[in-house]
Amino acid sequence: MTPEQMRDASLLELFSLEAEAQTLVLSAGLLALERDPTQADYLESCMRAAHSLKGAARIVGVDAGVRVAHVMEDYLVSAQEGRLYLRPEHIDALLQGTDLLTRIATPDNAPPPADIDAYVVLMGRLLEHMAAAPMAPPMAELQLEPLTPKVEPPVPVATEAPQAEPAEPEPKTKRTTESGERVLRVTAERLNSLLDLSSKSLVETQRLKPHLATMQRLKRMQSNGLRALENLNVHLKDHPLSLEAREALGDARRLLAESQQLLVEKNAELDEFAWHASQRAQVLYDTALACRMRPFADVLSGQVRMVRDLGRNLGKQVRLEIEGETTQVDRDVLEKLEAPLTHLLRNAVDHGIETPEQRRLAGKPEEGLIRLRASHQAGLLVLELSDDGNGVDLEKLRHNIVERQLSPVETAAQLSEEELLTFLFLPGFSLRDTVTEVSGRGVGLDAVQHMVRQLRGAVALEQTAGEGSRFHLEVPLTLSVVRSLVVEVGDEAYAFPLAHIERMCDLAPEDIVQVEGRQHFWHEGRHVGLVAASQLLHRPASQNSAQTLKVVVIREREAIYGVAVERFIGERTLVVLPLDERLGKVQDISAGALLDDGSVVLIVDVEDMLRSVDKLLNTGRLERIARHANQAVEAARKRILVVDDSLTVRELQRKLLLNRGYDVAVAVDGMDGWNALRSEDFDLLITDIDMPRMDGIELVSLLRRDNRLQSLPVMVVSYKDREEDRRRGLDAGADYYLAKASFHDDALLDAVVELIGGART
After folding, report:
1. What is the CATH number of domain 481-619?
2. Fewer CB atoms near the end CB (10 Å): N or C, the chain?
């Protein structure tokens, strides 16, 4: 490439950057002018943007850019001079020119010359109509032949008198922000590397803290040694010592005192160095992190225009108001937010905002309003998108649910508003009867929910009939840093993101209850399942003998569980370190991080962990958590397993046996009972016969064939009271048969005592 070609390539790149900035000014200004065409400041900024683009295009030799920018400038000057009153159709034409300029500045997407010619002719004819009449005709009349130039040639640029134009701007060699700061282009990979190095630097400085603590301890030990030597010297004064011994003692005292003084000085220097190093590392990390943060407005560059254009296509008047444009968000989050926001905005325009006639009849302004608000809350980016439309037709939604066979009529009639709205997020669900270019395929809200979940966030919908809808989104401010609770499981550190933690608590043994054969505890008016983190993460079970159980309550939408851990280490802000791609998806783990001391911590994937809990529940392999505080007591109590598919019968038998002092576990069917028998030790099995998955006869038969369990006493409690049923149960291996028809408290308890004796060993 020749030096001249290199210079041209550099200028074209600068022109692309110039066009990117100026077309944003044009788009924002034109949309503002559509609401109030008389705003002189917006007219001035748009005219200057078009003029600057014309000059920049002329310098780099992009004739198409010169022609388009020139006719747009003429148009805007006419509006400034009062010869043209801008109407929506005129804004359409100017926005069309803005789009052309964007394409012209993108080498891979440059429009063909025919499109440029057609646009220049179109704008020229529009100016002619403007000269013939005070108000320009509707643009629709002029767009019948948009791409076929008439015989009249476009106005040649060369006929323009050079002195009539202001001086062209010099080509920019630097990009600057609004505050005048220089802007450099840095690759995302290099920025990620910088953030990674700065985070490791911050961690390394934290490792000085334990080293400094050790040095302080050494100083105290040396001080104690010096005092001990002084005491020895005092005691030896009353004893005769040789001259050599006294000199040796003096030398030891002197050397120890000198080393003590040196250690004090160096400790002070090390302390100061550690403090300054940690401060500089923190500033370095904060600065590197700030490089990744971008204002929320960066994702909104085309959204205002999109809402406006879509509203016009649908015959609606819609305005988008945005709050919190300067809210700082990680650039990776911004990129992934663009698609969900576009879906929600299109949904609001298409489904939410009514036509001007409908709004007028409802007593609303003809122009619909969509509000988008961004803010920071507790380390999260909170987005609220609301409209003043008609809301969701709940009865139509209920009808569609039944029609699509997603719920029976009786159940659908009893669904609450919140439950009904969750159906809108199902794949393929839509309230549109026909498919249009905008909607009807049922992929909008499903895609929104999927993409928000990928960002480890959540989305919720609220609505008020006749007044509008509101979407509430919460996503992390950054994917590179996560605020977490660090816990210990199996002598290793794991981190739970705070965004998914409902609460932390210490459970006393009496707070843990058995329901449906599984351990639960009471939380905010509901039973919450309790699971062991050691089982989920495949770590050895803890041998801790603490009096209480440390529990992290995690929630993902409606799913909520308590996860028992060994110890709470504390809250930390962790720099996310992605796992090696060669590992693939690690179950229940999303990433890694480094703690202050340099040790590794794994960050839990809460959504994946909840799926693992559901899988264990469905397969009946969920282990029982030992309650350490009363392990000694339970070891001295006899344990009974009650297997029955009736909740009422299970609870009745469990309470009777508990009141008599036995330790009782329950299972919901034969399969669940068989899994419990293989994983735990019991002194007695009480089982029903008729149960799903595995009946009582099969359960007893399996038990009698197992070498470890064949001697376990078995009692059958069944509604069947016929002799052949009794004989069938006893033949299978049961030791006692009790009919529920003749069931009463004493009969059951007496039979238990007869089989295994009292509750205590």
Report:
1. 2.40.50.180
2. N
